[in-house]
Amino acid sequence: MNYPTIILKPKRSESLKRKHPWVFSGAIDKILMDEDAEELREGDLVQVADQNEKILGVGHFAEGSIAVRMLSFKKDVVNSNFWERKLTAAFQLRSTLQLTHSESTTCYRLVHAEGDGLPGLVVDIYGSVAIVQAHSAGFANALPAIAKALKAVMGDKLTAVYSKSEKALHRQGEESIEDDYLLGEAESPQIVLEHNLQFEIDWINGQKTGFFIDQRFNRELLKTYSKGKKVLNTFCYSGGFSVYALAAGATEVHSVDSSQKAIELTDRNVAINFEDCTIHKSFAKDTLKYLNETEELYDTIILDPPAYAKSKSAQHKAVQGYKRLNAKAFSMIKKGGILFTFSCSQVVDRKLFENTIMAAAIEARRNVKVLHHLSQPADHPVSIFHPEGEYLKGLVLYIEE
Known about the structure:
The protein has helices at about 15, 80-95, 135-155, 165-170, 215-220, 240-250, 260-275, 285-295, 315-330, 350-365, and strands at about 5-10, 20-25, 30, 45-50, 55-60, 65-70, 105-110, 120-125, 130-135, 160-165, 180-185, 190-195, 195-200, 230-235, 250-255, 280-285, 300-305, 335-345, 370-375, 395-400. The protein contains ten helices and 20 strands. α6 runs parallel beside α7 and α9 (about 315-330) packs across α10. It has three domains: about 5-70, Roll (Archaeosine Trna-guanine Transglycosylase, Chain: A, domain 4), CATH 2.30.130.10; about 80-190, Transcription Regulator spoIIAA (2-Layer Sandwich); about 210-400, Rossmann fold (3-Layer(aba) Sandwich), CATH 3.40.50. By secondary structure, it is of the alpha/beta class. β4 and β5 (about 55-60) form a beta hairpin. It has a seven-stranded mixed sheet, with helices on both faces.
């Protein structure tokens, strides 16, 4: 099949030859179309070529600074076999790493956008249901084919596929997309397991796909620092860190989130796992306001805020927000305490994040040691050719004095 061909400017093809999956609009020299073809539309499949018209790969076209997101770095045909091949590779990776279904864990990420060579697509698995998120018009067009390919790859392990793409695509002006089942149906919410702990997942009404799977192993690590401790979990959403702290034997756990719905979800997840739990308290309040108003001191604090910056223009403001938040948390941790602190802002890289936390420690006048450098788990892989994919940065800090 011949796709419209985007010809790159001289010396602008090197990044593609290094398999970086983005083509920026400023790199485009011209677009070659068939004589009887209509103009290029958002989401269309295109070939990308160098000045000598050598095909470098195939991707989805988009209006905006990132003009093409590459699906393949060779001349390829994007059809049902292509999607099955890509999804099989993603499934085999998770299977090899023992990150798919087990007796103790029934949720994982199957497709992580650029990390799996499918920029613009996320697929999370909850039990036998796949939740897909299209973040581009190209993948919005491909959703029916993706659902069929998922069923072909997973077989009886999959009973339903639900598209949770509406919010992401509406932000990009794609108003025709609505959340709905693409294959089968399933009740939502459902209970899933993560390290033998139970969580209620509502992919229809919940944030993202219903759960933040990317913190799976960081939550497990928290158990090491929670036994016999008083723990504060901020920006708690579903209460994941709170449940793990309680499971580890914390003496008291406080959960804080500005959303009343999140607090209600946290309380349900605590109740599912611990009947008549009296050592857990939840607060529907802005985290910084809670930190400023409470007189409580804690042994362990978790700071897992939403992305403070989604663009470079917001980077400085985000850094100031992280510094202010962490400085306040440092002041509330007992001597010998532990801080788990995170950033999921892609435009705040690891070095900038760690320098910001250092500045917060200086401001709070605490002596701090780094115990762990944290990131996203292996079912959220990062392509070595696309370092921007490492969005989750975290530190576990020991407050010495």
